[in-house]
Design goal:
- It is a single chain.
- The protein has about 325 residues and is of the alpha/beta class.
- The protein has 2 domains: about 160 residues, Alpha-Beta Complex (Quinone Oxidoreductase, Chain A, domain 1), CATH 3.90.180; about 140 residues, 3-Layer(aba) Sandwich (Rossmann fold), CATH 3.40.50.720.
- Strands 3, 4, 5, 6, 7, 14 and 15 form a 7-stranded mixed sheet that branches. A 6-stranded parallel sheet has the order 10-9-8-11-12-13.
- Helix 10 links the parallel strand 14 and strand 15.
- Helix 4 packs across helix 5.
- The longest helix has 14 residues.
- It is globular, with a radius of gyration of 19 Å.
- The relative contact order is 0.17.
């Protein structure tokens, strides 16, 4: 099969389009002919192997997979002997390492039926970012109807999903973005939008029940002053710091949280079928719409990753893939 591949960590331009073996299918897996892959900034980390902590998952010295991408949408080609929930021909979307390829063999519990009414490219944009938003708001913040939530980075991959999920819960949503993306964030349902180039969201007179900070471009003390005394701050960015600064930023809220009434949290989003199904139901109900800034061909994956590294991508980037 064709796949974008690199046998060592490095910049996106080191990736090449190569012929690699199709993945083997075990009893509990589903072989999917990939129609589209979704990309997010975390894919840049796994390609470069930085920050170094990502190598705990991807391989210490060399990438175990070598094919970028974790999100996909496609058509079931074959199922393992123990799989009873899917059959060849089903349209599915889900999560698995190495999705910038013509085939993936995903675990039975890491995929779900593709939502109706969206393209494969749109469906491929959902899993990682949509699940991160869902887990942050539903599980970590336990956001309730009527509560106020501020989403920093509201026009980004996670932010565009978070705005819509928060509105589906019934929260009052404030999104923070640049002037260029105000119209987009408003179209997603945000009640208020703060242009960070003209206003300071941490200087609000009305503090929030929940803040989901997908950018972490402000000091922790500054963000906390925009949070209610018993509110929840979810820190959720892996960019913008390296070395000792990375570890300080990573650990500071966790160390401080036990000593304040405010809940300062980080979290890990684990992809599971039941939560992919929740997102699919929201899409089918018209409450969730993936935002795509651009789609790329398999030959242009390196370019897509480079653009993600530059920042300011509105929504997600996707890769259109057609198996031979």
């Amino acid at each position: 099969m064709r796949a974008v591949y690199a046998d060592r960590y490095g910049p996106p331009e080191a990736l090449v389009l190569a012929e690699v073996p199709r993945p083997e299918l075990d009893a509990s897996a589903v072989l999917v002919r990939v129609q589209a892959a979704g990309l997010h900034v975390g894919d840049c980390f796994t390609v470069r192997g930085r920050p170094f902590v990502v190598r705990m998952e991807t391989g210490w010295l060399r990438p175990r997979c070598g094919i970028p991408g974790y999100d996909f949408s496609g058509v079931v080609e074959q199922v393992g002997d123990a799989v009873t929930d899917f059959q060849p021909g089903d349209e599915v979307f889900g999560y698995h390492p190495g999705t910038c390829a013509e085939f993936v063999a995903a675990g039975n519990d890491k995929l779900a039926k593709k939502p109706r009414g969206v393209s494969h490219a749109e469906a491929a944009a959902i899993p990682t970012s949509g699940l991160a938003a869902l887990h942050a708001l539903r599980d970590v913040a336990k956001l309730q109807s009527g509560q106020s939530v501020l989403i920093n980075g509201a026009s980004g991959g996670i932010g565009t999903f978070a705005v819509q999920i928060a509105k589906s819960i019934g929260a009052e949503v404030t999104g923070v973005c640049s002037e260029t993306n105000i119209e987009l964030v408003e179209s997603l349902g945000a009640d208020h939008v703060v242009d960070y180039t003209k206003a300071d969201f941490t200087a609000t007179a009305q503090p929030y029940d929940v803040i989901l900070d997908n950018v972490e471009n402000r000091r922790l003390a500054e963000v906390r002053r925009a949070l209610k005394p018993t509110g929840t701050l979810i820190c959720n960015s892996g960019t913008g710091a390296s070395g000792l600064a990375f570890w300080i930023r990573l650990l500071q809220p966790l160390i401080l949280s036990p000593f304040t009434k405010q809940s300062l949290r980080r979290y890990i989003s684990v992809p599971l079928r039941r939560d992919l199904e929740v997102l699919g139901e929201l899409v089918d109900a018209g409450k969730l719409k993936p935002v795509l800034s651009e789609t790329h061909s398999l030959e242009r994956v390196a370019e897509a990753l480079a653009k993600l590294e530059q920042g300011h991508t509105a929504g997600k980037r996707a890769v259109n893939i057609s198996a031979k």
